[in-house]
């Protein structure tokens, strides 16, 4: 009887597993790759470098004038993004930046994470450093390597979408599934590719951008300004498709220039550009984005539950209070 009972339990379990996988209505997409969530998760040979990078990220001494650090703009309390003055390009979040393949910045001017770090270190509106000053930190190459390793640990936990992709059909409700099919039919996934729902450079239309957004220090200044002047009030610019995960961390505005104050209105406008589908069920899309792609610590994979953003206590335990610098509301370059 014991053997028969055991076989019966195994059979029932097998049926439940098959049923769980067969209930999936959304096709399978690539899964997120395992990533570190702290310096201790890196190989031992890289841990000291990562710890230096963490310290220097919050240290204003990285700037020759001693007034600005990386955290001055990318604030941990805001999900490692920054608040920019109205009408200026948003300061993007650094969360999950190690999961991205590039290009980086809003206009894609940096092809690798290392080159993306070099840019603000030397830019006069940011760290405004120089080779002699960076010798205090082992040289610019060493500094970039240290910062890169620290940034590679700023990762978020999984979202209900990931649990669903791993076979948990209860993680997405019917409205979330409908919202996914809406964004799929609208062509959103052609730019915002799973698993991070981000992508490369694409032409995007913008309306009524002020002239001072186009700065001479930008590599694409002449190209973008020329297009802007000829096409105003509408201009087409190359823009990197940002991640659609964790949009609740984006603050009170959406879009490259924060030109929309409601996610629903931004989606309506964006769908007009991409697919001209004005009748798409936008509320279901918003529901999918704000629920299915929102990280939850309890959904982290075994051994990877520690998320710096979601575990706020852990974030502030690792930020010396004297290194938290008030954000300077100076103009920032187009990102």
From TrEMBL:
Instruction: Fetch the InterPro entries from UniProt.
Output: Cyt_c-like_dom, Cyt_c-like_dom_sf, Cytochrome_c_Peroxidase/MauG, Di-haem_cyt_c_peroxidsae
- Localization in the cell: Cell envelope
Gene3D superfamilies named in the record:
Cytochrome c-like domain (1.10.760.10)
Keywords in UniProt for this one? Answer: Heme, Iron, Metal-binding, Oxidoreductase, Peroxidase
| GO CC annotation, single | cell envelope
GO MF terms here are: cytochrome-c peroxidase activity; electron transfer activity; heme binding; metal ion binding
Give any Pfam family that matches: CCP_MauG
The residue ranges of the Cytochrome c domain are 48-155
Recorded hits in PANTHER family, A to Z, give: CYTOCHROME C PEROXIDASE-RELATED
Q: Please give the name of this protein.
A: Cytochrome c peroxidase
């Amino acid at each position: 009887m014991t053997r028969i009972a055991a076989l019966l339990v195994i059979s029932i379990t097998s049926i439940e597993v098959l049923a769980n996988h067969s209930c999936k209505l959304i096709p399978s997409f690539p899964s997120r790759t395992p990533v570190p969530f702290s310096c201790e998760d890196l190989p031992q040979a890289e841990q000291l470098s990562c710890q230096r990078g963490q310290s220097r990220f919050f240290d204003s001494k990285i700037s020759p004038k001693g007034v600005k650090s990386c955290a001055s703009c990318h604030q941990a309390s805001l999900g490692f993004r920054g608040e920019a003055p109205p009408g200026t390009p948003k300061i993007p979040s650094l969360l999950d930046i190690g999961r991205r393949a590039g290009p980086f910045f809003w206009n894609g001017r940096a092809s690798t994470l290392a080159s993306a770090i070099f840019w603000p270190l030397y830019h006069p509106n940011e760290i405004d450093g120089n080779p002699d000053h960076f010798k205090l930190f082992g040289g610019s190459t060493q500094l970039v390597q240290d910062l890169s390793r620290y940034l590679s640990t700023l990762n978020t936990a999984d979202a209900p979408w990931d649990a669903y992709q791993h076979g948990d059909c209860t993680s997405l409700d019917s409205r979330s599934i409908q919202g996914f099919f809406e964004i799929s039919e609208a062509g959103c996934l052609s730019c915002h590719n799973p698993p991070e729902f981000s992508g490369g450079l694409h032409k995007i239309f913008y309306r009524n951008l002020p002239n001072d957004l186009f700065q001479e220090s930008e590599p694409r200044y002449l190209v973008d300004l020329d297009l802007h002047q000829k096409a105003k009030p509408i201009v087409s610019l190359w823009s990197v498709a940002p991640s659609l995960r964790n949009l609740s961390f984006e603050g009170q505005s959406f879009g490259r220039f924060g030109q929309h104050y409601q996610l629903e209105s931004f989606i309506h406008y964006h769908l007009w550009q991409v697919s001209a589908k004005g009748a798409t069920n936008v509320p279901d899309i918003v529901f999918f984005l704000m629920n299915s792609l929102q990280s939850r610590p309890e959904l982290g994979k075994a051994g990877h539950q520690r998320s710096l953003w979601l575990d706020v206590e852990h974030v502030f335990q690792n930020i010396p209070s004297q290194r938290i610098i008030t954000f300077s509301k100076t103009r920032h370059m187009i990102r």
